[in-house]
């Protein structure tokens, strides 16, 4: 009798656990991956990090039952997408690898509503940091690979500065009076320049600094207005 009670108790425990699992089972709303799910759950829906398997497979972030955020998707035909999702569709920045006429192909860039929009174009240049420099002008003048610095005070090109220190990710540094900058550079070029100069009223000395990245190849003239 005691043994029978133990068996009955064990069965009740198993049934209770099974019922609990059934109640807390997470649903995935995208039909192609709704077969099974392992991961975080909220209110009965996949929410957070998880893996979902159906005819296709997805691993990544979920929101309210849908792939949303960052994740990797594998189709049955072997194609894969790694990138950003929104409500079960490719949306944001991502890379799609697939075969076209038995040749490996890649679509890399921006997606919206599951459609490829195009490549993400980098800005020609980006100012990372500036101090005591009112404005900076970047002008591409030709194709020769160099970055040249000019200095402008009160709107007029000037040489009233000192203690020039330059750093560049590539190229040959030059500061010979007629050319201040880097020649034979490779792009993207990451640059930093610092110098000291009097303020507009000659009442104080300014510590000036500029950090930037130029992505587009060419001959660039960088003018700092201080």
Topology, pairings included?
Elements: H1 2-23, E1 36-42, E2 45-53, E3 57-63, E4 66-74, E5 80-86, E6 89-100, E7 103-112, E8 115-118, E9 125-131, E10 135-142, E11 146-153, E12 156-157, E13 162-168, E14 172-175, E15 180-183, E16 189-198, E17 205-214, E18 219-225
Can you give keywords for this protein?
226 residues, Histone H3 K4-specific methyltransferase SET7/9 N-terminal domain, six-stranded mixed beta sheet, 10% helix
Strand content: over 45%
Alpha-carbon distance between the two ends? 95 Å
What is the rounded Rg? 30 Å
How are the strands of the biggest sheet laid out side by side? 1-2-3-4-5-6-7-8
Count of DSSP H/I helices:
1
What is the overall shape?
elongated
Give the overall pLDDT as a whole number: 87
Instruction: Provide the low-confidence segments as ranges.
Output: 1-24
Helix content estimate: under 10%
Number of domains: 2
Largest sheet: 8 strands, antiparallel
Return the structural class. mainly beta
H/E series: HEEEEEEEEEEEEEEEEEE
Number of strands: 18
Describe this structure in words.
It is a single chain. A hairpin with a 2-residue loop joins strand 6 and strand 7. The N terminus is likely disordered. With 226 residues, this protein is mainly beta. It folds into 2 domains: 94 residues, Histone H3 K4-specific methyltransferase SET7/9 N-terminal domain (Single Sheet); 101 residues, no CATH class. The chain is built from 1 helix and 18 strands. The chain has an 8-stranded antiparallel beta sheet, with no helix packed on it. Strands 10, 11, 12, 14, 15 and 18 form a 6-stranded mixed beta sheet that branches. Strands 9-17-16-13 form a 4-stranded antiparallel beta sheet, with no helix packed on it. The N and C termini lie far apart (95 Å).
